[in-house]
């Protein structure tokens, strides 16, 4: 079982994806995680900034593990969209991407000392995801320049579809983008590597 520190990081990521970074206070994380009250500054001496950074790192690792576990880039795509489709419906369309939430809320010009490290972590997470997607595509026979382009398109389209679905409170944008990406990526793969949906 995870200790209080790990529970707080996971809770922070889950709360950020539903509420956003600004609306997620340390008190909320403590309540959600069940961690003892005094533990926040014991485990996170850098305060809320450190907790946000580690929540982003956790989200990055979680996504990388999901991508790496798939048998092909199409399976990874299916798992990604299917998983978030369920999360959206289960959360009444509140569950977005914690890395996006942090990225769009981290640019506070009045607090660059707090914003800069969090934004850097978000940028690093997106870079890692793009790399993992491109690597998976190359392993499935898509040439390197095309895999890099498709990785950027896939990540951008997925995150955009997630925002549209949350705003509309409807999974239709997610389903449409999934189908289009699957077709586009599948067309770039050797026939033997394609998996039916």
UniProtKB/TrEMBL annotation:
<keyword id="KW-0238">DNA-binding</keyword>
<dbReference type="InterPro" id="IPR001647">
    <property type="entry name" value="HTH_TetR"/>
</dbReference>
<keyword id="KW-0805">Transcription regulation</keyword>
<protein>
    <submittedName>
        <fullName>TetR/AcrR family transcriptional regulator</fullName>
    </submittedName>
</protein>
<dbReference type="InterPro" id="IPR009057">
    <property type="entry name" value="Homeodomain-like_sf"/>
</dbReference>
<feature type="domain" description="HTH tetR-type">
    <location>
        <begin position="12"/>
        <end position="52"/>
    </location>
</feature>
<dbReference type="Pfam" id="PF21993">
    <property type="entry name" value="TetR_C_13_2"/>
</dbReference>
<feature type="domain" description="Transcriptional regulator LmrA/YxaF-like C-terminal">
    <location>
        <begin position="75"/>
        <end position="180"/>
    </location>
</feature>
<dbReference type="GO" id="GO:0003677">
    <property type="term" value="F:DNA binding"/>
</dbReference>
<dbReference type="InterPro" id="IPR054156">
    <property type="entry name" value="YxaF_TetR_C"/>
</dbReference>
<keyword id="KW-0804">Transcription</keyword>
<dbReference type="Pfam" id="PF00440">
    <property type="entry name" value="TetR_N"/>
</dbReference>
<dbReference type="InterPro" id="IPR036271">
    <property type="entry name" value="Tet_transcr_reg_TetR-rel_C_sf"/>
</dbReference>
